[in-house]
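Fold it.
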Amino acid sequence: MRPKPMVEIGGIPILQHILSLYADHGHKDFIIACGYKGEFIKEYFCNFRFRNSDVYFDLATGKSLLTNSKIPDWRLNLVDTGLTTQTGGRIKRCSPWIQKETFMMTYGDGVGNVDIAALLKFHRTHGRLATMTAVRPPARFGSLTFDGDRVTCFSEKPQVGEGWINGGYMVLEPQVLNYIDDDATIFEHAPLEQLAAEGQLAAYKHEGFWQPMDTLRDKQLLENLWQSGKAPWKVKS
């Protein structure tokens, strides 16, 4: 069984879909926090050039040559962050490579057409330590309105079934690392709660497409969008 970021949509791991969105906005230096079955991620990128090139072999000499390569100019640092480390701990373990710069963070199991440039501009404008992209989750079921036992309104799977939630795609200042204690820290609990209490957490409201991949049904939905040629998160480049 492969880790969730390596589940494929259109034959491409969802992790690569996410990286492509950032790269399309000019951000091409990545730190991947590896955990469960992180070797799948390492092996994938280790063989990335081979997978995306034509290959010439001279069997007599053992020489090989890659041609017609379609390789993005990304730089990836794959960091082992432990099998049981929580989300905050994984960020903390990546701190030696973050240094003292503003950095962006998201999860490896959801895609959206988030305007990364607008998100970063918003973060730099408000001056707080952290920005979270807020999204409205797609409702999973049809919505009913009653008058007694009579249905007065039925709406099949309205786009907005609940309020705003954390959609990932965060922008963080390096001081945020001080809010994380150790490997056991869940980033979505004490750190974000404390940042919010101190007025240091802002929300960038994304009204566009966003979809997590939590279930097989979610995967099939994303796959159908990709195969239809109407995947909202697909970059043009």
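The chain has eight helices and 15 strands.
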